[in-house]
Amino acid sequence: MHKTKLMLAALSLAASTSIASAEEISLWVRTSSAAVLQGLADQYNAAHDDKVIVTPITAEQMVPKLGAAIAGGAPPDGAVLDLIYLPTFAANESLEDITDFVKGLPYADALSPSHIRLATYEDKIYGVPALPDASIIAYNTDLFEKAGLDPKKAPATLEEVAESAKKIHALGNDTYGFYFVANSGSWLIYDFLPHLWAANADILSEDGREATVDTPALRDTFAAYRDMWKAGAIHPTSRSGNGNNAVEAFASGKVGVLMTGSYIVNLLTSKYPDVKFDVAPIPGPKGGVSSFAGGDTLALIKGVSEEKKKVALDFVNFYMQPEQQVYITKESGMPPRTDVADQAYGQFDKRNLIAYDVLAKAKTPYTFSSDELFVSRTGPFLNLIQSAIFGDDVDGSIKKAQDEFTKILERTNP
Protein backbone atom coordinates (compact mmCIF):
# COMPACT_ATOMS: atom_id res chain seq x y z
CA MET A 1 0.00 0.00 0.00
CA HIS A 2 2.87 2.34 0.93
CA LYS A 3 4.58 1.59 -2.41
CA THR A 4 1.35 2.30 -4.27
CA LYS A 5 1.05 5.70 -2.60
CA LEU A 6 4.64 6.50 -3.49
CA MET A 7 4.05 5.54 -7.12
CA LEU A 8 0.90 7.66 -7.30
CA ALA A 9 2.73 10.58 -5.74
CA ALA A 10 5.56 10.23 -8.25
CA LEU A 11 3.12 10.12 -11.16
CA SER A 12 1.29 13.15 -9.82
CA LEU A 13 4.56 15.06 -9.47
CA ALA A 14 5.59 14.11 -13.01
CA ALA A 15 2.25 15.24 -14.39
CA SER A 16 2.35 18.55 -12.55
CA THR A 17 5.96 19.12 -13.68
CA SER A 18 4.94 18.41 -17.28
CA ILE A 19 2.01 20.81 -17.04
CA ALA A 20 4.16 23.46 -15.41
CA SER A 21 6.79 23.21 -18.14
CA ALA A 22 4.27 23.65 -20.96
CA GLU A 23 4.16 27.14 -22.44
CA GLU A 24 1.27 29.10 -23.86
CA ILE A 25 1.94 31.86 -26.37
CA SER A 26 -0.47 34.52 -27.57
CA LEU A 27 -0.61 35.60 -31.22
CA TRP A 28 -2.64 38.55 -32.45
CA VAL A 29 -3.69 38.12 -36.08
CA ARG A 30 -5.74 40.08 -38.60
CA THR A 31 -9.31 38.82 -38.88
CA SER A 32 -8.76 38.16 -42.59
CA SER A 33 -6.07 35.62 -41.66
CA ALA A 34 -7.60 34.31 -38.45
CA ALA A 35 -9.33 31.21 -39.83
CA VAL A 36 -6.17 29.83 -41.45
CA LEU A 37 -3.93 30.63 -38.49
CA GLN A 38 -6.46 29.19 -36.05
CA GLY A 39 -6.50 26.01 -38.10
CA LEU A 40 -2.70 25.83 -37.98
CA ALA A 41 -2.71 26.52 -34.26
CA ASP A 42 -5.27 23.76 -33.69
CA GLN A 43 -3.06 21.30 -35.56
CA TYR A 44 0.01 22.40 -33.61
CA ASN A 45 -1.76 22.30 -30.26
CA ALA A 46 -3.07 18.80 -30.89
CA ALA A 47 0.47 17.52 -31.34
CA HIS A 48 2.26 19.53 -28.64
CA ASP A 49 2.02 20.22 -24.91
CA ASP A 50 2.79 23.87 -25.65
CA LYS A 51 -0.13 25.87 -27.00
CA VAL A 52 -0.59 28.70 -29.49
CA ILE A 53 -3.54 30.97 -28.68
CA VAL A 54 -4.81 32.99 -31.65
CA THR A 55 -6.67 36.27 -31.07
CA PRO A 56 -8.31 37.91 -34.11
CA ILE A 57 -7.99 41.70 -34.41
CA THR A 58 -9.70 43.71 -37.14
CA ALA A 59 -7.21 44.99 -39.70
CA GLU A 60 -8.01 48.65 -38.99
CA GLN A 61 -7.40 48.18 -35.26
CA MET A 62 -4.31 45.98 -35.42
CA VAL A 63 -1.61 48.66 -35.64
CA PRO A 64 -3.03 51.17 -33.11
CA LYS A 65 -4.09 48.42 -30.70
CA LEU A 66 -0.73 46.66 -30.87
CA GLY A 67 1.12 49.95 -30.48
CA ALA A 68 -0.96 50.80 -27.42
CA ALA A 69 -0.41 47.36 -25.90
CA ILE A 70 3.34 47.62 -26.38
CA ALA A 71 3.41 51.12 -24.90
CA GLY A 72 1.29 49.94 -21.98
CA GLY A 73 3.56 46.99 -21.22
CA ALA A 74 0.93 44.32 -21.92
CA PRO A 75 1.42 43.16 -25.51
CA PRO A 76 0.87 39.68 -26.93
CA ASP A 77 3.89 37.43 -27.37
CA GLY A 78 3.69 37.82 -31.13
CA ALA A 79 1.64 39.28 -33.94
CA VAL A 80 0.89 38.34 -37.53
CA LEU A 81 0.98 41.73 -39.24
CA ASP A 82 0.53 43.18 -42.68
CA LEU A 83 4.16 43.13 -43.83
CA ILE A 84 4.12 46.82 -44.77
CA TYR A 85 4.11 47.78 -41.07
CA LEU A 86 7.20 45.77 -40.13
CA PRO A 87 9.69 48.63 -40.76
CA THR A 88 7.81 50.95 -38.42
CA PHE A 89 7.61 48.48 -35.53
CA ALA A 90 11.23 47.39 -36.06
CA ALA A 91 12.48 50.98 -36.10
CA ASN A 92 10.59 51.63 -32.86
CA GLU A 93 12.47 48.73 -31.22
CA SER A 94 9.21 46.88 -30.63
CA LEU A 95 10.15 43.54 -32.20
CA GLU A 96 12.41 40.65 -31.27
CA ASP A 97 15.49 40.00 -33.39
CA ILE A 98 15.17 36.55 -35.04
CA THR A 99 17.98 36.94 -37.57
CA ASP A 100 19.81 33.74 -36.65
CA PHE A 101 16.62 31.69 -36.76
CA VAL A 102 15.59 32.94 -40.21
CA LYS A 103 19.06 32.62 -41.75
CA GLY A 104 19.39 29.14 -40.29
CA LEU A 105 16.25 27.77 -41.93
CA PRO A 106 17.11 25.19 -44.63
CA TYR A 107 14.49 26.81 -46.87
CA ALA A 108 15.51 30.43 -46.10
CA ASP A 109 16.26 31.14 -49.76
CA ALA A 110 12.72 30.07 -50.70
CA LEU A 111 11.00 32.69 -48.54
CA SER A 112 9.45 35.72 -50.23
CA PRO A 113 12.29 38.26 -50.71
CA SER A 114 9.98 41.20 -50.13
CA HIS A 115 8.69 39.82 -46.84
CA ILE A 116 12.25 39.39 -45.62
CA ARG A 117 13.23 42.85 -46.89
CA LEU A 118 10.32 44.52 -45.06
CA ALA A 119 11.17 42.57 -41.90
CA THR A 120 14.80 43.75 -42.02
CA TYR A 121 15.96 46.90 -40.25
CA GLU A 122 19.62 47.86 -39.80
CA ASP A 123 20.69 44.40 -41.01
CA LYS A 124 18.59 42.51 -38.46
CA ILE A 125 15.55 40.39 -39.32
CA TYR A 126 12.42 40.80 -37.22
CA GLY A 127 9.84 38.63 -38.97
CA VAL A 128 9.14 35.62 -41.13
CA PRO A 129 6.46 35.19 -43.84
CA ALA A 130 3.18 33.67 -42.68
CA LEU A 131 0.45 34.07 -45.31
CA PRO A 132 1.73 35.87 -48.42
CA ASP A 133 -0.16 36.91 -51.51
CA ALA A 134 0.79 38.56 -54.77
CA SER A 135 -0.94 40.82 -57.28
CA ILE A 136 -1.56 39.62 -60.84
CA ILE A 137 -3.94 40.23 -63.72
CA ALA A 138 -6.84 37.98 -64.68
CA TYR A 139 -8.18 38.11 -68.22
CA ASN A 140 -11.35 36.71 -69.76
CA THR A 141 -10.27 34.33 -72.53
CA ASP A 142 -13.74 34.30 -74.13
CA LEU A 143 -13.71 38.09 -74.53
CA PHE A 144 -10.15 38.00 -75.86
CA GLU A 145 -11.19 35.52 -78.52
CA LYS A 146 -14.31 37.49 -79.47
CA ALA A 147 -12.19 40.64 -79.82
CA GLY A 148 -9.78 38.89 -82.19
CA LEU A 149 -7.04 38.55 -79.54
CA ASP A 150 -5.06 35.43 -78.77
CA PRO A 151 -6.63 33.94 -75.60
CA LYS A 152 -3.49 31.89 -74.96
CA LYS A 153 -1.24 34.94 -74.95
CA ALA A 154 -1.48 37.46 -72.13
CA PRO A 155 -0.56 41.09 -72.85
CA ALA A 156 3.19 41.47 -72.36
CA THR A 157 3.13 45.23 -71.76
CA LEU A 158 0.73 47.72 -70.24
CA GLU A 159 0.46 49.33 -73.67
CA GLU A 160 -0.77 45.95 -75.01
CA VAL A 161 -3.24 45.80 -72.12
CA ALA A 162 -4.60 49.18 -73.20
CA GLU A 163 -4.93 48.13 -76.84
CA SER A 164 -6.64 44.88 -75.82
CA ALA A 165 -8.99 46.76 -73.48
CA LYS A 166 -10.11 49.10 -76.26
CA LYS A 167 -10.76 46.20 -78.65
CA ILE A 168 -12.83 44.40 -76.00
CA HIS A 169 -14.83 47.56 -75.26
CA ALA A 170 -15.60 47.78 -78.96
CA LEU A 171 -17.62 44.54 -78.60
CA GLY A 172 -20.43 46.56 -77.00
CA ASN A 173 -21.12 49.51 -74.74
CA ASP A 174 -21.84 47.24 -71.77
CA THR A 175 -18.52 45.44 -72.17
CA TYR A 176 -15.38 46.94 -70.67
CA GLY A 177 -11.78 46.08 -71.29
CA PHE A 178 -10.25 46.95 -67.93
CA TYR A 179 -11.09 47.12 -64.23
CA PHE A 180 -8.94 48.49 -61.42
CA VAL A 181 -9.83 49.94 -58.02
CA ALA A 182 -8.88 53.61 -58.22
CA ASN A 183 -10.56 54.83 -55.04
CA SER A 184 -8.48 52.90 -52.51
CA GLY A 185 -4.84 53.51 -51.69
CA SER A 186 -4.48 49.97 -50.37
CA TRP A 187 -5.69 48.56 -53.68
CA LEU A 188 -3.57 50.95 -55.73
CA ILE A 189 -0.24 50.09 -54.14
CA TYR A 190 -1.20 46.45 -54.73
CA ASP A 191 -2.19 46.84 -58.39
CA PHE A 192 -0.63 50.04 -59.73
CA LEU A 193 2.91 50.17 -58.30
CA PRO A 194 3.97 46.85 -59.94
CA HIS A 195 3.82 48.61 -63.32
CA LEU A 196 6.64 50.85 -62.12
CA TRP A 197 8.66 48.08 -60.53
CA ALA A 198 8.44 46.07 -63.74
CA ALA A 199 10.20 48.99 -65.44
CA ASN A 200 12.88 49.12 -62.70
CA ALA A 201 11.41 52.33 -61.33
CA ASP A 202 9.85 53.16 -57.98
CA ILE A 203 7.97 55.89 -56.16
CA LEU A 204 10.34 55.67 -53.17
CA SER A 205 14.07 55.14 -52.79
CA GLU A 206 15.31 51.68 -51.79
CA ASP A 207 15.55 52.65 -48.12
CA GLY A 208 12.14 54.36 -48.19
CA ARG A 209 13.51 57.71 -47.06
CA GLU A 210 13.19 59.75 -50.27
CA ALA A 211 10.41 60.31 -52.81
CA THR A 212 11.17 59.43 -56.44
CA VAL A 213 7.73 60.11 -57.88
CA ASP A 214 8.52 61.62 -61.29
CA THR A 215 9.89 58.88 -63.56
CA PRO A 216 9.40 58.01 -67.24
CA ALA A 217 7.82 54.73 -66.11
CA LEU A 218 5.18 56.58 -64.08
CA ARG A 219 4.37 58.90 -66.98
CA ASP A 220 4.14 55.98 -69.42
CA THR A 221 1.84 54.16 -67.01
CA PHE A 222 -0.41 57.18 -66.65
CA ALA A 223 -0.50 57.55 -70.44
CA ALA A 224 -1.80 53.98 -70.86
CA TYR A 225 -4.46 54.40 -68.16
CA ARG A 226 -5.58 57.76 -69.49
CA ASP A 227 -5.82 56.27 -72.98
CA MET A 228 -8.16 53.54 -71.71
CA TRP A 229 -10.23 55.98 -69.65
CA LYS A 230 -10.73 58.43 -72.52
CA ALA A 231 -11.71 55.54 -74.81
CA GLY A 232 -14.36 54.40 -72.32
CA ALA A 233 -12.62 51.04 -71.92
CA ILE A 234 -12.31 51.23 -68.12
CA HIS A 235 -15.32 50.03 -66.13
CA PRO A 236 -17.05 53.16 -64.76
CA THR A 237 -17.11 51.94 -61.15
CA SER A 238 -13.32 51.69 -61.18
CA ARG A 239 -13.08 55.40 -60.45
CA SER A 240 -15.26 55.52 -57.37
CA GLY A 241 -15.56 51.92 -56.17
CA ASN A 242 -13.79 50.42 -53.16
CA GLY A 243 -13.17 47.01 -54.71
CA ASN A 244 -16.18 45.21 -53.24
CA ASN A 245 -17.71 44.60 -56.67
CA ALA A 246 -14.53 44.03 -58.68
CA VAL A 247 -14.68 40.24 -58.72
CA GLU A 248 -18.40 40.21 -59.48
CA ALA A 249 -17.87 42.61 -62.38
CA PHE A 250 -15.23 40.34 -63.85
CA ALA A 251 -17.27 37.20 -63.19
CA SER A 252 -20.17 38.72 -65.10
CA GLY A 253 -18.23 38.15 -68.31
CA LYS A 254 -18.31 41.85 -69.18
CA VAL A 255 -14.74 42.78 -68.16
CA GLY A 256 -11.69 41.81 -70.17
CA VAL A 257 -8.79 42.44 -67.75
CA LEU A 258 -8.98 42.66 -63.96
CA MET A 259 -6.18 43.93 -61.73
CA THR A 260 -6.37 41.50 -58.83
CA GLY A 261 -4.51 39.14 -56.51
CA SER A 262 -3.33 35.55 -56.29
CA TYR A 263 -6.53 34.55 -54.49
CA ILE A 264 -8.51 35.06 -57.69
CA VAL A 265 -7.81 31.62 -59.18
CA ASN A 266 -9.29 29.60 -56.32
CA LEU A 267 -12.09 32.12 -55.82
CA LEU A 268 -13.26 32.06 -59.43
CA THR A 269 -12.96 28.29 -59.83
CA SER A 270 -14.99 27.68 -56.68
CA LYS A 271 -17.65 30.42 -56.93
CA TYR A 272 -17.80 31.12 -60.68
CA PRO A 273 -16.82 27.88 -62.43
CA ASP A 274 -18.32 28.97 -65.77
CA VAL A 275 -15.95 31.94 -66.20
CA LYS A 276 -13.25 31.25 -68.77
CA PHE A 277 -10.10 33.02 -67.65
CA ASP A 278 -6.36 32.91 -67.32
CA VAL A 279 -3.89 34.87 -65.22
CA ALA A 280 -0.58 36.59 -65.84
CA PRO A 281 1.99 38.77 -64.08
CA ILE A 282 1.46 42.53 -64.01
CA PRO A 283 3.41 44.06 -66.92
CA GLY A 284 5.37 47.29 -67.08
CA PRO A 285 4.36 49.99 -69.58
CA LYS A 286 6.82 48.72 -72.19
CA GLY A 287 7.78 45.30 -70.80
CA GLY A 288 8.98 43.45 -67.74
CA VAL A 289 6.79 42.02 -64.99
CA SER A 290 6.40 42.49 -61.27
CA SER A 291 3.94 42.11 -58.43
CA PHE A 292 3.07 43.50 -55.03
CA ALA A 293 4.13 41.04 -52.33
CA GLY A 294 1.34 41.35 -49.79
CA GLY A 295 -0.02 39.37 -46.92
CA ASP A 296 1.21 38.68 -43.42
CA THR A 297 4.48 38.38 -41.54
CA LEU A 298 4.84 36.78 -38.12
CA ALA A 299 6.88 38.83 -35.65
CA LEU A 300 7.66 38.43 -31.95
CA ILE A 301 7.30 41.32 -29.54
CA LYS A 302 10.47 42.65 -27.92
CA GLY A 303 11.09 41.13 -24.50
CA VAL A 304 9.27 37.85 -25.07
CA SER A 305 10.74 35.18 -22.79
CA GLU A 306 13.19 32.67 -24.21
CA GLU A 307 10.73 29.86 -23.42
CA LYS A 308 7.90 31.52 -25.31
CA LYS A 309 10.22 32.55 -28.14
CA LYS A 310 11.24 28.90 -28.54
CA VAL A 311 7.59 27.82 -28.82
CA ALA A 312 6.77 30.57 -31.32
CA LEU A 313 9.67 29.65 -33.58
CA ASP A 314 8.77 25.97 -33.26
CA PHE A 315 5.28 26.92 -34.48
CA VAL A 316 6.88 28.67 -37.48
CA ASN A 317 8.84 25.53 -38.29
CA PHE A 318 5.63 23.53 -37.93
CA TYR A 319 3.58 25.57 -40.39
CA MET A 320 6.48 25.69 -42.85
CA GLN A 321 6.42 21.90 -43.26
CA PRO A 322 5.02 20.55 -46.57
CA GLU A 323 1.83 19.13 -45.05
CA GLN A 324 0.91 22.47 -43.52
CA GLN A 325 1.93 24.28 -46.71
CA VAL A 326 -0.70 22.24 -48.56
CA TYR A 327 -3.25 23.17 -45.89
CA ILE A 328 -2.42 26.86 -46.28
CA THR A 329 -2.76 26.55 -50.05
CA LYS A 330 -6.18 25.00 -49.70
CA GLU A 331 -7.42 27.59 -47.21
CA SER A 332 -5.58 30.75 -48.22
CA GLY A 333 -4.24 30.32 -51.74
CA MET A 334 -0.52 30.88 -51.29
CA PRO A 335 1.85 29.27 -48.79
CA PRO A 336 5.04 31.09 -47.71
CA ARG A 337 7.53 28.56 -49.09
CA THR A 338 8.10 28.72 -52.84
CA ASP A 339 10.31 25.62 -52.97
CA VAL A 340 7.28 23.42 -52.31
CA ALA A 341 4.98 25.26 -54.71
CA ASP A 342 4.57 22.35 -57.10
CA GLN A 343 3.88 19.96 -54.22
CA ALA A 344 1.50 22.37 -52.50
CA TYR A 345 -0.39 23.03 -55.71
CA GLY A 346 -0.31 19.42 -56.86
CA GLN A 347 -3.98 18.99 -55.98
CA PHE A 348 -5.04 22.51 -56.94
CA ASP A 349 -5.25 24.72 -60.01
CA LYS A 350 -1.84 25.10 -61.66
CA ARG A 351 -2.65 28.69 -62.60
CA ASN A 352 -1.75 29.54 -59.01
CA LEU A 353 1.89 28.98 -59.95
CA ILE A 354 1.89 32.18 -62.02
CA ALA A 355 1.84 34.21 -58.80
CA TYR A 356 4.64 32.10 -57.37
CA ASP A 357 6.79 32.58 -60.44
CA VAL A 358 6.59 36.35 -60.08
CA LEU A 359 6.85 36.46 -56.28
CA ALA A 360 10.66 36.52 -56.47
CA LYS A 361 10.39 39.77 -58.47
CA ALA A 362 7.63 41.21 -56.30
CA LYS A 363 8.15 44.23 -54.09
CA THR A 364 6.48 46.14 -51.28
CA PRO A 365 7.06 49.80 -50.42
CA TYR A 366 9.63 50.01 -47.64
CA THR A 367 8.39 52.94 -45.61
CA PHE A 368 7.89 54.14 -42.05
CA SER A 369 4.76 56.10 -42.98
CA SER A 370 2.66 53.71 -45.06
CA ASP A 371 -0.73 54.97 -43.94
CA GLU A 372 0.00 58.66 -44.48
CA LEU A 373 1.60 58.13 -47.88
CA PHE A 374 -0.49 55.38 -49.40
CA VAL A 375 -3.57 54.40 -47.42
CA SER A 376 -5.07 57.70 -46.32
CA ARG A 377 -8.02 58.87 -48.40
CA THR A 378 -6.53 62.36 -48.30
CA GLY A 379 -2.97 61.17 -48.81
CA PRO A 380 -0.69 62.09 -51.74
CA PHE A 381 -0.70 58.72 -53.49
CA LEU A 382 -4.44 58.32 -53.86
CA ASN A 383 -4.75 61.95 -54.91
CA LEU A 384 -1.99 61.47 -57.49
CA ILE A 385 -3.72 58.51 -59.14
CA GLN A 386 -7.14 60.13 -59.17
CA SER A 387 -5.95 63.46 -60.57
CA ALA A 388 -3.39 62.15 -63.07
CA ILE A 389 -5.67 59.51 -64.63
CA PHE A 390 -9.06 61.18 -64.45
CA GLY A 391 -8.00 64.84 -64.40
CA ASP A 392 -6.27 67.14 -66.88
CA ASP A 393 -3.02 68.22 -65.22
CA VAL A 394 -0.57 65.32 -65.15
CA ASP A 395 2.50 67.53 -64.64
CA GLY A 396 0.90 69.43 -61.77
CA SER A 397 -0.35 66.22 -60.15
CA ILE A 398 3.11 64.65 -60.21
CA LYS A 399 4.80 67.78 -58.82
CA LYS A 400 2.26 68.09 -56.03
CA ALA A 401 2.70 64.41 -55.09
CA GLN A 402 6.50 64.74 -55.03
CA ASP A 403 6.27 67.74 -52.70
CA GLU A 404 3.74 66.08 -50.38
CA PHE A 405 5.64 62.80 -50.27
CA THR A 406 8.82 64.68 -49.35
CA LYS A 407 7.16 66.61 -46.52
CA ILE A 408 5.73 63.44 -44.98
CA LEU A 409 9.00 61.57 -45.27
CA GLU A 410 11.01 64.38 -43.72
CA ARG A 411 8.65 64.38 -40.77
CA THR A 412 8.31 60.61 -40.23
CA ASN A 413 11.67 59.05 -41.12
CA PRO A 414 13.39 57.66 -38.00
Can you tell me about this structure?
Helix content is 48%, strand content 15%. Residues 1-18 have low confidence and may be disordered. Strands 1, 2, 3, 6, 7, 8, 9 and 12 form an eight-stranded mixed beta sheet that branches. Strands 4-5 form a two-stranded antiparallel sheet. Strands 10-11 form a two-stranded antiparallel ribbon. Helix 8 packs parallel to helix 11 (216-230). The protein has 20 helices and twelve strands. The chain has two domains: 2-133 and 293-359, Periplasmic binding protein-like II (D-Maltodextrin-Binding Protein, domain 2), CATH 3.40.190; 134-291 and 366-412, Periplasmic binding protein-like II (D-Maltodextrin-Binding Protein, domain 2, 3-Layer(aba) Sandwich). The protein has helices at residues 2-21, 31-47, 59-71, 86-91, 99-104, 113-118, 141-146, 158-169, 185-191, 193-198, 216-230, 246-251, 264-271, 306-319, 322-332, 341-344, 353-359, 370-375, 380-390, 394-412; strands at residues 24-30, 51-57, 78-82, 120-121, 124-125, 128-140, 176-179, 255-261, 277-280, 282-283, 289-290, 293-300. It has 414 residues and is α/β, with parallel strands linked by helices. The longest helix is centred in the N-terminal third of the chain and has 20 residues, at 2-21.
